[in-house]
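hey m, so remember when u said the tokens were messed up on ur end? i reran from scratch. heres the input so u can diff it against urs
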Amino acid sequence: MTVWQAIVLGIVQGLTEFLPVSSSAHLLVVPWLLGWESPGLAFDAALHLGTLAAVLVYFWRDLLAMALAFPRAIRRPYAILRSGDSADVMPRLALLIAIGTVPGLIIGLLGEGTIDAVFHPGGVAPDAVIVAVAVASIALALLLLAAERTAQHVRGMASLTARDGLIIGLAQTLALIPGVSRSGATITAGLFRDLTRVDAARFSFLLGVPIIAAAGAKGLIDTLTSGLDAGQLAVFAVGVAVSALAGFVAIWGLLRYLQRATTAVFIVYRIVLGIVLIVLVVSR
């Protein structure tokens, strides 16, 4: 992999990790379109270190408040989850993120090998993989459209319950399938639970921290133990740094965009992307 490829893929990862369009899909599609070999799951996971840095920097106050509140939350979890006291908001959010993270960790541990074998076979991605990505992209777009049409957009993060955390956490497991999108699935689930668009996105980003951290740590370990030379490690580092910068811009931009607009642009993008990919595969 060249530095140029790492820069391009770092930008792709950083932007698409937080926009509801699927980073894993784009990290497959972009090399496929450009005729590059797939960078592999290890590089994809290593780029998560960049997006992790972006979300940690952007939400450091919220994350610090939740970390400080977590000991109190685990001492009396049932009372905290049922509490309507504004002083218990941060402890409750910390518990909800813990609850929502469990399904993703379990499914990730059980399904990662299969996903890697199917979607990252080495070399240029097979056409069947691209079609699967296209179908997943369109399917999530239709779900997001349904959520936009039915959601009341009236709830904030302070009103989230254990049931909300579990439902949104279960939605996050779908992100193992390239084309679905972790943020897309969790924002969609949040909208179905009547969250405002901004709060659905904020909770999605906060909920993603443990999963992104786990993916980034695994990618780093895999990278360091894969026998890459110093030059390739430097290329990986460039990709991670670019991913961090692009990720921060994506978070900042999306939260401001959703204050005044719907997710329609992402729904259209996902459907158009899916159709274009299927047409390209069929016409090859």
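this time it looks ok to me. The chain has one domain: 3-62+95-283. if urs says something different then somethings off w ur setup not the seq
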